[in-house]
Amino acid sequence: MSHSTHSYTESDITTILSIIQSEKSNSPTNIFSQLIDILQSENTVLLRSQVFQVKEIAAVLLAEANPRTMTQVLELTTAFIQQYHDFIHDWLFILLKHILKISSNLDAKQQMSNQLSTTQKRLLRTTHAIKSKFPVKSQFEAISEYLTGKSQVLDAKLKYTVLRYLTEIVSPLEKDLQVYGSSGEGLNLEDLVVSTFSKILDISNTDRSSDVRMMADRCFIRFFKANPAKHQKLFQKMDTVS
After folding, report:
1. Model's pTM, two decimal places?
2. Which of 133, 159, 177 is the last residue of a domain?
3. Residue 176: what pLDDT?
4. Residue 80, CB-side half-sphere exposure with 13 Å CA sphere
5. In whole angstroms, how far apart are CA 145 and each of 79, 97, 188?
6. Least confident among 113-117, 188-192, 234-238
7. Where in the sequence is the domain holding 73, given as residue range(s)?
8. How far apart (Å, rounded) are the C-alpha atoms in residues 42 and 83?
9. Of 78, 133, 148, 232, which one has the fewest beta carbons inside 10 Å?
């Protein structure tokens, strides 16, 4: 990642944030570039209130998912995560769902092309930033809620993408299970694993989409192959989960 050497005044930052908050995806391209520059700058540190503003701005822009600005929005989001992840843990649930929804929509386009688009390359960087900067346990808790939460509605494309993401974080999740061990937090995490993978097993048997069933199978198998002896016990607990 490149680091800017340009210094921005508080007035500059206030003006840039105000324009994007007002215009959203219709903001001039150079305004997005300036906010990205601020987030990457070694000479500029945002105030806590400004971090909150950027979080609100990014949430709106990701929800809009405007193709015209998507590449810059993803670049902005990546820079924001890399520099200010310690202050935005409460945003992970919404952030990850937006990113996975964007990913599911881009996947359909990728099937018609042999090459990754610029937007897809930016998306990979954003996804990597989420995986590397947020606790795996928190990522799993978000994924679990997407799959098991009664208020969550996932179409086949999004369900497939959520399951694929979980498959990709199985190894670090297994390490977390070992680290927490039999502590209270570890037991709570085990309970969440049992309920989540019970749901995934159900999806692999009953979902209408063959692609979703296949990805659920892959996710389930990868998790239990990560530590067969330990996970066999968890598998037995699933019999008691309705």
Report:
1. 0.90
2. 133
3. 80
4. 26
5. 26, 10, 14
6. 113-117
7. 1-133
8. 10
9. 232
